[in-house]
Amino acid sequence: MSTTAKRRRRETYQWREAVAGYLFILPWLIGLAVFTVLSMGWSLRLSFQHYDLATATGTSAGLDNYRQLVGNPRVATALGNTFTYALMAVPVDICFALLLAMLLSHQRRFTGPFRVIYYLPKMTPPVATAAVFLLLLNGQYGAINRFLGWFGVDGPTWLVDPHWVKVSIVIMTLWAVGGTTVILLAALQNVPRELYESAQVDGANGLAQFLRITVPMISPTLFFLVITNTIGALQVFDQAYLLFYRDGNAAAPDAALFYGVYLYQQAFQQFNFGLAAAMSWLLFAILMVITAVQLKLGNRFVHYEGGNR
Amino acid sequence: MSGPGLSPWSALGRRSAGVVRLVLLLAFAAMFLYPFAWLLSASLKPRGQVFDNRIPPRTWVFGNYVEVFHQLPLLAWVFNSVLIAVLAATLVTLSSSAVAFGFAYFRFPGRKVLFGLLLATMMLPGAVTLIPNYLIWKWLGWLGTNVPLWGGTLFGSAFYIFLMRQFFLGVSRDLFEAARVDGCSYFGLFWRIALPLAKPSAIIVWLFEFQASWNNFQGPLIYLNFGDPSSYTVPLGISYAMTMYSPTAGGHGDYQYVMVASLLVTLPMLVIFAFAQRHFIEGIAAGGVKG
To answer: Is B106's CB within 8 Å of A283's CB?
Structure first.
């Protein structure tokens, strides 16, 4: 066989392999084209329109929707609430999960059952969590205030008092902290034992070992959790909606107006698609900026095995 | 670690630290389990006692578990939830595996760029495409049906594709080349070799998607909330029942039925977890640590 014939044969083979490859990824490509590219384009267009759902037509609105983002006090309230919530929930959840993971990693017996019990709330559908905590957090009869009463603490009216509304939702996320715990536990178990042994020989106490070995060694995981939990917290919806906005007849405290809830209301209750689309782009921009800042800071503080990437 | 050179004090310290640790672990376990016990008890109480925090109940009303099916279209909700979750989990597992195999095995121009794009889509918050996706499903005439709740899974999901590709990359290429020489088609490589080998990863994907779909609240709220309660999923139904029984909406506070429904929506998740906890915990830990 001549070399050109050989090359031609190989080229056909590669061509066939390429076609087959594209056929395999075709489902994703179609989804990308329709539900991501087309969707994002449409969303961007909607954000510059007043959309009428009945006639399915949009009229140009210029920058009206974006001007509303600044001018509408509800948007500012929702943003403020969401940031306050995220600033509470992210560090509190991660610290609590780290405490649980450290307790579990030191425990030799019954680790399995404990790990399972700690993870169970994470399996529970948010709607069931909300239905139960709606009653557990009741200011008058709730079990949580009863418990606090044993210690002489007069618990707040969690779901009514504007100062405690966000804390209530943080409490619900603390109950379901098992996912974060399991990730941290895996990271802790990857820290080489020898590091602690040599530190003990050097006479380092528990706190020093925690700060000098544990934290740096699990910092990539901590960093990953801070980013993903922040993204999740800024999009909080289920709990806030179920506890405060489910019942249209009941008054909802302004303190529970989260960004995701207001976006939902604007889109699917007021059918104000233009403003809702503009809100979604603002959220996207905020998430990008926060993630970029975190990545930048992360490169300074995170310790990667074998040098920083 | 306990060398003979250590003083008896440090041995004592270590033992008491162990006791403190165990007590803390048990206290936290009680804290995590309490809401489940509370829920179970509340589901067995008569109307006036649902809020009394008693475990076990003062008056046992096993009839709640029968009456709830007369009060609410719970059977229809369970059927809808199961159908949607099984469809979504099965379809997303197949589509994501196929796409992942495409990225892992085949060499084609633009592969790296497209895979980078796939990773980038994971960063996109759902809110940005929520509204236009709604309008797309509306344009297709599927609002009020369950199609929007599983239809998107036909196109694979970025995170699952990433997860499955990681697995396929670990399979020796020689295995596939040998099968090619034996005359196996490209689809055969995927269906008869790659997918059976990837069973552990595929199970993780299936379980994750089943859980996500089963627990999903916002999706049904947007796509099914058109006044016909029998089309609801269990989570949307519970939300509807919570409002229906609430005094502000003219209800009588029959929260015991909400509690029965909440228990029934939770139970399948707990059972699945009992049988497949290794898959869940390994899947989550792997995703997080590699992250």
So the answer is: no
